[in-house]
Design goal:
The chain is of the alpha/beta class and about 210 residues long. It has one domain: P-loop containing nucleotide triphosphate hydrolases (Rossmann fold), CATH 3.40.50. About 30% of the residues lie in helices and about 20% in strands. Strands 1-11-10-9-2-8-3 form a 7-stranded mixed beta sheet. A hairpin with a 4-residue loop joins strand 5 and strand 6. The radius of gyration is 17 Å and the shape is globular.
């Protein structure tokens, strides 16, 4: 794979340009996918929100970590089970129902920005947020691709195997991401792939 070195600021600008080219949709859903704690999904999604708003586009941030299942379901097999993290942590159905479906052509346009506070293990009781036509919702998190979620643009922050083992803060979770690479191959599904072995010096995949 060929990669072009790029600064984080220029990367955000180029991705914003890419979002601007998406036409013919009432509202746009963008995924920023990467290993939690080892890739800067939140920082990149925040940067895109700021740039989109500067261009006059309504933009809303949603974090997949606010759509995790309750602890009783996530930790049924223990708190450090990599397979459970892969299959049981994210409430894919809720993310689809509360965030992505409302953005569709026949959707209400009203998005629930968060559902579950994983730290307190209780519902957030957040209010729905109306997204106007032309608005963009940016969803950051892990394991977002290959689950049938309808994103208009998917960005995958990729780590080499060595960097994955070095940078993931929870060593027990490394097999989760290795399984994701093997079974889903997120780089093949994403519209944009960015190598982030060194987050200060990302590199953009160029086919």
């Amino acid at each position: 794979m060929r990669y072009r070195p790029i600064s984080p600021a220029v990367l955000a600008e180029e991705l914003t340009d890419r979002v601007d080219t998406l036409t013919g949709r009432r509202r746009i859903a963008v995924a920023v996918d990467g290993a939690a704690g080892a890739t800067e999904t939140t920082e990149l999604a925040d940067a895109l929100v700021d740039l989109l708003r500067l261009r006059g586009r309504a933009a809303l941030r949603v974090s997949a970590r606010d759509f995790l299942r309750p602890a009783s379901l996530r930790f049924e097999h223990g708190r450090t089970d990599p397979d459970a993290r892969y299959t049981d942590w994210l409430d894919v159905g809720a993310l689809r129902r509360e965030v992505l479906d409302p953005l569709g052509e026949n959707g209400s346009g009203e998005v629930l920005p968060s559902l579950w506070d994983a730290e307190r293990d209780r519902a957030t009781r957040a209010a729905r947020v109306p997204v106007p036509e032309g608005g963009v919702v940016l969803v950051d998190g892990e394991l977002l691709l290959g689950a049938g979620l309808a994103f208009d643009l998917a960005v995958h922050l990729w780590l080499s195997p060595a960097a994955l083992r070095r940078r993931v803060p929870d060593a027990w979770a490394v097999p989760t991401y290795e399984r994701y690479e093997e079974e889903v191959d997120p780089s093949a599904l994403a519209d944009v792939v960015v190598r982030v072995d060194d987050p200060r010096h990302p590199a953009l995949y160029t086919p």
